[in-house]
Amino acid sequence: MAESFTTRLIQRLQIEQKKNDHGGVYAFAQRTLAYHSNRIEGSTLTEKQTASLFDTGTLTSEDVHARMTALLDEYNATDKHDLHGLAKFYADYEAIHPFQDGNGRTGRLILFKECLKNDIIPFVINDSRKAEYYHALNTVQTKQDYSLLERFFREEQSEYRQQVEGFLPPVKE
Question: How far apart, in whole angstroms, are the C-alpha atoms of residue 137 and residue 146?
Answer without folding.
Answer: 8
